[in-house]
Amino acid sequence: MGRTGLGEFEHQVLLTILRLGRESYSVPIVAELEGRTGRGVATSAVYIALRRMEKKGLLRSRLETPEESGEPYPRRYFALTEAALEPLREARRSYISLWEGIEPLLDE
Amino acid sequence: MSERDVEGRPPRVASAVLRWVVSGDEADVVEGELAELFRRRVGLHGRREARWWYRRQVAGFALRVATTRERREEEGGMGWVSDVGGDVRWAVRMMRKRPTFTAVAILTLALGLGANTAIFTLVSAHFLVPLPFDRPEELALVWEVAPDRPDRPMTVSPANYFVWREEIASLGDVAAYNVDMATLSGESGDAAAERVTASVVTPHFFDVLGVRPRLGAGFSEEATRQASERLVVLSHSLWVRRYGGDPAIVGRDIRIDSEPHTVVGVMPASFRQPERALTWQGAELWRPMLLDDQRDDRGSHYLRTVARLAPGTTLDQAREETSAMAGRLAQAYPDTQAGWGVQVRAVDEYLLGEARPTLLLLLAAGVAVLLIVCANLANLLLARGEERRREFAVRAALGSGRGRMVRQIVVESVVLALGGAIFGALLVAAGREAIQAVQIRYFSGLVDVAVDARVLGLTTVLAVAAGVLFSLPVARSASRAELRPGLVEGGERAGGRPGGGPTRNLLVVGQVGLATSLVVIAALLTRSFNELVNVPPGFDPQGVVTFGVTPPSARYEERGSYVAYHQEIERLMREIPGVEEVGMVSDLPFTTENMWTTFQIEGRPASPPDEPRSDFHRVTPEYFAAMDIPVVRGAIPEQRWESQEDVEVAVNRRFADLYLPGRDPLGAGIVLEWSSVRTARIAAVVENVLDDGFAGDPEPILYLPYGASPGRRMYVVLRTAGDPGAVLTQVRTVVAAVDPDVPASDLRLLQGLLAETVARPRAASLIGSAFALLALLVAVAGIYGVLSYAVERRTREMGIRSALGASGRQLVSMVMGQTTRLLVVGLALGLAAAVVAGNALSGILFGVRGWDPSSLALATLLLGSVGTLAAWLPARRAVRIDPKEALRME
User: B65, B169, B618, B652: least surrounded by Cβ within 10 Å?
Assistant: First the structure.
């Protein structure tokens, strides 16, 4: 991937957050990822990807305190920023162009 | 809390690990969210699977947090991990990535640190753990010093004991004691008669030491008087061994030397009597003595005394006051006191001071071995540092500070060292019994070794210091790491400095030097020990069996009765098959107990300070043949059991040289005032015997015939042919059959007795040699490692040279030339250090100078040849390099 491009795992995490709605925290993200990909996911990998993408400006987060949520622990909610959309579009374009014409070869 | 929460609680240990790994603000978030995922998991897959999943997740956190730390740091840090914790985790990860390196490093360190831990147990037992007395620093031992022997402390006369106790203010209280043996008479049915080490003490003896019996009230002056001294306090071990630890023993009567004694106490197991004569074998029982009728006895010096200094006074004050008193007594009683002085010594110095030089030597040897190990580790790390150059360059490029990298390296080294320390301590703990055996055998039974917090603390400090030390060279080189060559693959390879730079050369020189010194010292100690045991003792211990018999006075009061007993024993011994000669003597050479007497030479009267003195033994005529002591002149007197008007005696050569110089000793008359014998004529001069052990000088000895001065306690000396072991068994049976109340005590081979007296020099020699060997191995491994690495790095150069026509010989000598220089410098430094150390050791060396050419030559030869071999192996490899291969390597 290029300099501003997404890693495959980052790509998956971003898509998962989008699927889950406006914002989400790690528990549904991990569950959705595992459900969609059919593979186990290391929670720590998700955390690291989330924090890394936050640093890159692809995500923003807010902390929900126990008082606000009524849960025993605080939760960190992540949402996509505008900046995340461009690399996602770019990734989609590259994948589609790569898939063009070869889909029949891999038809099940 | 709801049921769901209890059911859904993640594994406790893993949770704790998670909290430890992830710290800071995010900890709560991660923990809570992971717990939520865990509960979902329980619902989906069951509790068991969920718990394993949770643990895997935590492990994942630990691993990722550790491996991504520099990136996080570069990004400003996420505050998840406390810094050193992260370094430690990183270090563990690096160690696991290179199991061979880690195993080698930890094993080497375990050897170096374990050796030190073992020594710490001995040092701690001797110098750090207080002696088992109340305020031991206040206790002192007081002796008299005879006029002509200022170096040899003498036992004390009863009159002087009373003077010290009653008139010296700086001595708060003084107790007297003596060491002897006692026979526990056989009791109805169970216990057989047994001869044990014992001590006779004044009633307040235990009060002076400040140790109370564990059971019973112990002695008091009044009770002792009432019971006419027939009281006894038992040692803990005797109480357990012979009386089954029965608490009802107090108040019971037991028979000692055939007389009933009332048990008034049992001492605690930790109690030790502060007496060197009891170093190897502690007293098993104590009996009280009053000394009332001996208040004015200034002539019999037989007591030992221990004093507690008065509060606030010092040893020096006590010395001054007792010396002043000795001066006054000399004026008042010139006959007995003229010229006599006093010696006062601190109890710990007296008991353990002798072991100090040996232990300090071991400590130094241990540190030297550890330094060699450190040099090896530093070299290993330097070599690895070259490999990790790229890693460090990347880190530096990513903005990791130099200080940060140095810290990482130091932490890695300390973690390695602590790993080695733990392994070493485990080895020592597993071998504690063996160390205790060494301690008892070679040092003293007065203290116990333990791998305790103190020892582990010392080991930890040493490990951290070692870790820091061996990380320094590589930390230094990493902090200077240049980025570019590190990043360019194979950067420095082709043009690398041959040999790996001055640091490494310095390390090799240091290793060679230390190993050389250790080998020299070990050689010195071994030579000294050999010199010591090869001193001819004046008799032939080979095949000689000895034991003591002491018929108790209660049943053998009359002279005739114990003489008959001894006669019977002698007769029966002659019948044992394999016994060639049977002699008897009042005390054996090489034991601490020696009787001595003053005497007058006929026609040459001398006044007290100049009165001649001599050790004396009562013997049967066959004693000399049984011991194989050669007769120099005359003939051994024939007198055996009977008393005679005219007594003939034998003296040793030293006696004749000292007191009868320039005249024929045969026929000279000797007057002994104390004995019924008025004048004895010298009938024989025999060869000198070392009475005080190998290191002692021959003392004048007077051999009185048994019949002239019989005594109850006699040692039997049997010269045997064939297997002395068979004789030992027979002796026990035969002696028990004569009188079940009189066992054969100290039954052993004379050679065993001799070996015991040189236990400490033997220990120094054995342990010193073991350390030298260890040092040699580690140093050789180091030299080999450094040279192999240097050759490997020069492979390309060698290839080019070889391609250009250099012969194998030239290549070898090129590599070897450099090594030889290092070896020579290391050897020279090591030999110089060894000479200095050897001179410092001259106090514990015997018959060898600290500057011993043969030891120095041995070390030079050994280190030189082994070092050359270690260098030659890699050099030879370099020669076998195929030039084409070598050039293609880069």
Answer: B169
Q: Is B610 on the interface with A (CB under 8 A)?
A: no
- Chain A CB within 8 Å of residue B523 CB: no
Chain A from 70 to 99: CB within 8 A of any B CB: 71-76
Q: What is the pLDDT of residue B678?
A: 67
**Which tokens is B516 given?**
């050389």
pLDDT given at position A2:
42
Counting residues of chain B whose pLDDT is more than 90, the rounded percentage is 20
Which residues in chain B have Cβ-Cβ distances shorter than 8 Å to A76?
A: 26, 29, 33
C-alpha B798/C-alpha B804 separation (Å) is 10
Task: Enumerate the residues of chain B whose CB falls inside 8 A of the CB of residue A48.
Answer: 64, 68
Torsional sign, CA B578, B584, B589, B593:
positive
Nearest-angstrom CA–CA distance, B572 and B23:
86
Could you tell me the two tokens for B370? 């550890």
Amino acid at B540: D
B57 at interface of A, judged by CB pairs closer than 8 A: yes
- What single letter denotes the amino acid at residue B568? E
Say if B37 is an interface residue toward chain A (CB within 8 Å). Answer: yes
* Total residue length of chain A: 108
With a cut of 0.85, is the ipTM above it? yes
Cβ of residue A42 closer than 8 Å to a chain B Cβ: yes
Whole-angstrom CA distances from B389 to B45, B273, B490, B491, B492 are 47, 63, 10, 10, 10
Q: In Å, how far is A24's CA from the nearest CA of chain B? A: 12
B540 at A interface, C-beta within 8 A: no
Query: Which residues does chain A have within 8 Å of residue B68's beta carbon, measured at their own beta carbons?
Result: 48
Query: Are B49 and B38 within 8 A, CB to CB?
Result: no
List the single residue in A with minimal CA-CA distance to B63.
Answer: A44
Q: How far apart are CA A74 and CA A85, in angstroms?
A: 28
Rounded to 10 deg, the angle between the B47-67 and B12-21 helix axes is: 20
Residue B490 pLDDT more than 60? no
Q: Strands of B291-392 (E only): list them.
A: 304-309, 341-346
Predicted pLDDT at B70: 43
B683 vs B592, which has greater pLDDT?
Answer: B683
CA distance B768 to B517: 11
Instruction: For an interface test with A, give the residue of B33, B65, B81 to mutate (most A CBs within 10 A).
Output: B33
Residues in CB range of B313: below 8 A, 6 or more apart: B169, B170, B172
Q: What is the pLDDT of residues B761-775, one digit of tens each?
A: 787 788 888 888 888
Which of B394, B573, B376, B569 is closest to B482 using CA atoms?
B394
**Cα–Cα dist B111/B420, whole Å:** 8
Dihedral sign from CA coordinates of B274, B277, B282, B284 = negative
Q: What percentage of chain B exceeds 70 in pLDDT?
A: 88
Strands across the sheet containing A23-24: A23-24, A75-80, A59-64
Residue A7 sits at the chain B interface (C-beta within 8 Å): no
Res. B67 pLDDT band, cuts 50 70 90: low
Q: Are B451 and B422 in contact (CB under 8 A)?
A: no
In tens, the pLDDT along B553-595 reads 878 888 888 999 999 999 999 999 889 999 999 888 887 666 7
pLDDT at B68: 59
- Residue B161 Ramachandran class (φ > 0 left, ψ -120 to 50 alpha, else beta): alpha
Average pLDDT over residues B322-337: 87
Two structure tokens written together for B840: 């410092």
DSSP string, B113-171: HHHHHHHHHHHIIIIISPPSSSSGGGEEEEEEE-TT-TTSEE-B-HHHHHHHHHH-TTE
Using DSSP bridges, classify how beta strands B745-749 and B544-549 pair: parallel, antiparallel or unpaired.
Answer: antiparallel
Segment B100-106 shows an average pLDDT of: 84
Q: Token pair of B123, please?
A: 């040092």
Q: Report the C-alpha gap between B609 and B331 in whole angstroms.
A: 13
When computed from its CA atoms, the radius of gyration of chain A, rounded to whole angstroms, is: 16
